[in-house]
Design brief:
289 residues, mainly alpha, 69% helix, globular
Length: 289
């Protein structure tokens, strides 16, 4: 039986024509853009090319926040270490307290909109627990903050007179000198860091209570903590702040205190916000309507 192939010949000729090829390429490009949108969240086709937009997305969502966390941590820890190294006996805890608090508030106000303004591994952990940071960013943030701590402490060492640097152990935490002080120091770090992390979670993350004064309240919490607990534990509240000077000065005595206390405080605040004091979107129980 014969078959009419005129339609097939017409389709073959049309498929080889330039307009038809352009139409197929357009459909292929649209499909590729849609795949980019679904997998990477690149949005609608507003840029010059799919690759450029996807690279921009990854830069702004991952690379840029980590760079900012490293930069902010370096600036904060540089100022903090220098305030301890150059502190005179007549000012007591006032100079380090003001320097740490003001420096942290300033870097949060300046850089916070890029990365969230954590500059502290304990704060990043709490932010993950209360829904303010994606879990996949926790480890990159920690690495960035610790690297920033190293840079800040190294810069403080570079600009400080050698005698002053070693007299203060490079601003490493040396408050705890004997095992009898350990329990009090751990409890102090736990409570002091709880105040700081609460200021961050409730002032900058929790939708119901966050506001424009968050950088001020967070910086003030650091100042208050150092004035209150500096003589008990050193009032570190930040593992990156402890890590950088410890590396530069080689001082590791009771260093674990400044990881255990702040990280336990993060877990405590995460539980408080998730179960009791967070807004309706954050709480896991008693949500109401």
């Amino acid at each position: 039986m014969g078959v009419d192939t005129s339609h097939e010949r017409w389709y073959t000729l049309q498929s080889r024509s330039e307009p038809f090829q352009a139409f197929k390429n357009s459909l292929r490009n649209k499909a590729a853009v849609s795949m980019c949108d679904l997998e990477f969240g690149c949005g609608k086709d507003e840029g010059p090319s799919m690759g450029t937009r996807c690279r921009g997305f990854w830069y702004e969502r991952l690379v840029q926040p980590c760079l900012v966390e490293m930069l902010g941590s370096a600036l904060f820890i540089f100022i903090g270490c220098l305030s301890v190294i150059e502190n005179g006996p007549e000012t007591g805890l006032l100079q380090p307290a003001l320097a740490h608090g003001l420096a942290l508030g300033l870097v949060i106000a300046t850089l916070g909109n890029v990365s969230g303004g954590h500059f502290n591994p304990a704060v990043s952990l709490a932010a993950v627990l209360v829904g303010g940071l994606h879990l996949t960013l926790l480890l990159p943030y920690w690495i960035s903050q610790l690297c920033g701590g190293l840079v800040g402490a190294a810069l403080a060492k570079a600009v400080s007179p050698e005698e002053r640097f070693w007299n203060t152990s490079g601003a490493a935490f040396v408050t705890v000198q004997e095992p009898g002080q350990v329990a009090g120091a751990v409890v102090a770090e736990l409570v002091l860091t709880t105040l700081l992390v609460l200021a961050v979670c409730m002032g900058a993350i929790n939708e119901k209570t966050r506001g424009p004064l968050a950088p001020f309240s967070i910086g003030l919490s650091v100042t208050v903590d150092i004035l209150a607990g500096g003589a008990v534990s050193g009032a570190c509240m930040n593992p990156a702040r402890a890590f950088g000077p410890a590396v530069m000065a080689g001082h590791w005595t009771f260093h674990w205190i400044y990881w255990l206390g702040p990280l336990l405080a993060s877990l405590l605040v995460g539980a408080l916000v998730r179960f009791f004091i967070g807004d309706g979107k954050t709480r896991l129980i008693l949500k109401g309507r």
